[in-house]
Amino acid sequence: MKLFDVYALQEIELSSANGAYLYDQHHQRYLDFYGGHAVISIGHNHPHWQERIQTQMDKISFYSNSVILPIQKELAEKLGPISQKEDYALFLCNSGAEANENALKLASFHNGRSKVVAFSKSFHGRTSLAVSVTDNPTIVAPVNKNHQIIFLPFNDEEALASCFEKEGGHIAAVIIEGIQGVGGIRVATTSFLRLIRSLCTKHQSIYIADSVQCGYGRSGDFFSHDYAGVAADIYSVAKGMGNGFPVAGILIHPMFKPKIGMLGTTFGGNPLACAAALAVLEVIEQEQLLDHVKKIGTVLQQSLQTIPAISNTLRGRGLMIGFDVPPNIPDLKKTLLDNYKIFVGDAKPNTIRLLPALNISHHEIGLLTDALTNIYNTH
Ligand SMILES: Cc1ncc(COP(=O)(O)O)c(C=O)c1O
After folding, report:
1. Contact, 27 vs 18, CB < 8 A?
2. Which of 115, 119, 192, 340 could cross-link to 154 by cystine, CB 3.0-4.6 Å?
3. Would you say residue 323 lies in a domain?
4. What pTM was computed for the model?
């Protein structure tokens, strides 16, 4: 059997990883400023993460959500104070798309409505409802097109207000990334998030903060949305939550009342996934990574600002940073990989996305900045 060929692959076979570094089959070392789509939060193969998973494996690796799994409670109790959402409830699942799917479903169960507001350049996943709120028609199949989605321009307060004036009573939810990732590192403005909050409250719609990529400390706040000083009704989390172990979830405001059977999953919240997620939170706490991200994120931005052709489009917060590449530098991502052995991400049409592990150091920032300075100086 061969693999179903849906990925644009880079010609590299990785065989091991440690901290901020990856190694291929020829022992070539690569610096990772992308974390495999923003997934690596505490560094590759962090020893505490490895040990936490191994210890759990020695006890019990899996049972379904038909028995009490105490490690799920332990995870929820740890996540509450770190995320500052102690009164929210946690539903565990397996991926970002599934988290958003459940968030949207829960919103609709709650207020009995079907319309959802989403924004230009959004990315919320590839399952049915998640892909229908994603602003990319090329990945939406005809079978996903029967949902009632209203797309509005990102950060356009007038458009949002007028939409609620007309449709307010029918809108189940508004879903928004605090910092758009796939859309090219676009930060939602404080006033836009506050308007979403106040309109949702007024019209009894649900504010869903998609924190799959921008959450879990990546911006220096646990949730990038909370920078606006208002809380969402549901936060979806995935990616950095497990540092590579598949685990995701939604944090649910106490106004939602659970009913047996209303949401569910076979694998979600399995003991190994919970062990990985607990290890991540423990490391975030022990290594004071939220503070570190705030400081080192500033160092990263300041270093990049020394390159004039980067500084004018530099954007993002914490360790979720983007900039646009001018046309005279044809394939910066590939040049960094081939010539400097540095992994970065991109976003269409010409944005570089930097999403390193939250414990990245000055040294690695220096390596990236030196490489970029060299490339920009020779073009
Ligand atoms: C903001 C956001 N939401 C949802 C998803 C979907 O997550 P997953 O690929 O785990 O389904 C992604 C993935 O890139 C994302 O960036």
Report:
1. no
2. 119
3. no
4. 0.98
Q: Could you tell me if the CB of 210 is within 6 A of ligand 1? A: yes
pLDDT tens per residue across span 238-290? 999 999 999 999 999 999 999 999 999 999 999 999 999 999 999 999 999 99
- 238 in contact with ligand 1, CB cutoff 6 A: yes
Task: Identify the bridge partners of residue 240 per DSSP, sorted by sequence position.
Answer: none
* Mutational test site, ligand 1, from 7, 92, 124, 179, max ligand atoms within 8 Å of CB: 124
Rounded distance between C-alpha atoms, residue 187 and residue 319, angstroms: 13
Distance CA 261, CA 338 (A): 50
**Count of structural domains, the chain:** 1
SS3 16: strand
Question: In ligand 1, which atom is closest to the CA atom of 177?
Answer: 1
Q: Residue 313 pLDDT > 90, yes or no?
A: yes
Cis peptide before 349 (omega within 30 of 0): yes
Ligand 1 binding pocket includes 181 (Cβ within 6 Å): yes
Residue 85: predicted pLDDT: 98
Structural domain harbouring 237: 61-286
| Residue owning the nearest CA to atom 7 of ligand 1 | 96
Q: Structure tokens of 284?
A: 């975030």
In a domain, 378, yes or no: no
Q: Quote the ligand 1 centre to 235 CA distance (angstroms).
A: 13
Ligand 1, pocket-test mutation among 100, 121, 213, most atoms within 8 A of CB? 213
- The protein residue whose alpha carbon is closest to atom 13 in ligand 1 is 125
Within a domain: 102 = yes
- The predicted model gives 217-235 an average pLDDT of 98
Does a structural domain hold residue 30? no
- What is the CATH classification number for the domain harbouring 245? 3.40.640.10
The amino acid that residue 152 corresponds to is L
Three-state DSSP class for 126? coil
Burial status of residue 350 (CB atoms within 10 A of its CB: 0-12, 13-18, 19 or more): middle
CB-ligand 1 contact for 215 (6 Å cutoff): no
